[in-house]
Design a protein that fits this description.
Elements: H1 42-50, H2 63-77, E1 85-88, E2 91-95, E3 98-103, H3 110-117, H4 120-123, E4 127-132, H5 139-145, E5 150-154, H6 155-163, E6 168-176, E7 179-184, E8 199-202, H7 208-219, E9 232-235, H8 241-246, E10 252-256, H9 262-265, E11 269-274, E12 282-287, H10 288-293, H11 295-314, H12 316-328, H13 336-343, E13 347-351, H14 353-366, H15 378-385
Parallel strand pairs: 3-4, 8-9, 8-10
Antiparallel strand pairs: 1-2, 5-12, 6-12, 6-13, 7-10, 7-11
Helix pairs in contact: 1-2, 3-11, 6-7, 11-12, 12-13, 14-15
Length: 393
């Protein structure tokens, strides 16, 4: 039995994200010149410009701005990679491949924001961008296809797609505790077994919450197959989960923070189950070809991402700082106080070694859902989904 997925929907172009705070400030540029700018002569022109005195003012756009904008536009129209000029000590140090990482609206993506805004990716020589996606997009398929280089996500939700051929690898884990299964305060449901015959709202049938809670529901003796099982699954836009629960449309909701917890924080619902006791939930998921063809970059990317988790673990003031970044940039749909409170509930523990150890029993548990054949060993699947990049922590 294979877990169904939600159809992809058209995407809007990713909006430009703010530069990390360690990025150098823009420099004055010379007046435009008539020489034609191409991808081949871009570096030479920039180098020549660095030796040209800068006028006090310029009446129009600089040759440098025309160069970077024009060549980038030409590369985009041709379907090629962006030409990215990295400046260092007044010189051109070369080009860097753009590495888009997914942001999807979950509070628990905080290590990514910390690594980005603290400049850890830049420090590692990586040109990372944050790619804002639509809720309905299947980001796993997009990562597998190379549209994005990577994404954070609950490792349980990546097992079945990778098992079925998705071109992706997991390289480490960040923390625990960000999935919730919630019922209304007046609900008669007291255990997972009581959800037999009930209606459960879920963002999608390929979501992290569906993959994780399917394990507990299966252990409770329920058939979680969306076709003919013991539960009526209802896909609900994440922002509407709380409303649909409290108005009685569904008997329970599940999802990633903050959406399912909002009615709990309002006093209208209670948590029936969560993943707070798991050693790891969120992981680094990277495109398989990127891991295979650029293992050093994949390692540097993972280690920089880990530093984001370390930053959060080091000081509660850091949690508040990243919470403000999440809210101010509309990365999450929640009030600042809510984000601050929830970030304090997670266990920040970034590791590749411990993550590899933890996923084997997790895989064994997941086999009980029926989404992976019973004759597949946990060690076999762990070796298939995990990429050992030589990270020793």
């Amino acid at each position: 039995m294979t877990a169904p997925t939600t159809p992809d929907s058209p995407n809007t172009p990713d909006e430009p994200e703010p530069a990390p705070k360690k990025a150098p400030a823009p420099e004055p540029t010379p007046a435009p010149e008539s020489e034609e700018v191409t991808a081949d002569n871009a570096a030479d022109i920039l180098a020549a410009d660095d030796e040209t005195p800068v006028p006090a003012s310029s009446p129009g756009p600089s040759r440098r701005s025309l160069l970077i904008g024009g060549v980038a536009a030409a590369a985009l129209l041709a379907g090629g990679a962006w030409l990215t000029i990295r400046r260092h000590h007044q010189g051109v140090t070369g080009t860097a491949k753009t590495l888009p990482l997914v942001i999807g609206g979950d509070i628990c993506a905080a290590p990514l924001y910390a690594a980005y805004y603290q400049g850890y990716f830049s420090d590692a020589g990586l040109n990372v961008t944050l790619a804002r996606t639509q809720r309905t997009e299947d980001t796993k398929d997009a990562v597998g296809a190379g549209k994005y280089i990577g994404a954070p996500g609950i490792f349980f939700s990546w097992l079945e797609p990778i098992y079925n051929g998705l071109n992706a690898k997991l390289t480490g884990g960040f923390h625990s505790g960000c999935l919730q299964l919630v019922v209304a305060n007046d609900s008669p449901v007291a255990s997972l077994a009581d959800l037999r015959g009930k209606r459960i709202g879920v963002p999608s049938l390929s979501s992290s919450a569906f993959a994780y809670f399917a394990i507990g529901l299966s252990r409770a003796g329920l058939n979680v197959d969306p076709e003919g099982g013991d539960i009526t699954w209802t896909t609900i836009d994440e922002d509407s989960l709380g409303t649909r629960l409290t108005n009685g449309d569904v008997d329970a909701i599940m999802g990633s923070d903050p959406a399912p917890l909002l009615p709990v924080l309002d006093g209208r619902a209670r948590v029936l189950a969560s993943n707070k006791d798991e050693p790891f939930c969120c992981s680094v998921a990277l495109n398989g070809d990127f891991v295979k063809d650029s293992p050093e970059q994949a390692r540097a990317l993972t280690e920089a991402w880990f530093k984001g988790s370390d930053y959060l673990a080091a000081d509660e003031a850091h949690l508040d700082e990243i919470a403000k970044i999440e809210v101010d940039n509309n990365y999450v749909a929640a009030d600042l106080d809510v984000v601050k409170k929830l970030l304090r509930t997670y266990g920040w523990r970034a590791s590749a070694v411990e993550f590899r150890t933890a996923i084997e029993p997790g895989i064994e548990d997941f086999k009980g859902t029926g989404f992976i054949r019973a004759d597949v060993t946990a060690a076999e699947l762990a070796n298939a989904v995990f990429a050992d990049l030589g990270i020793t922590r």
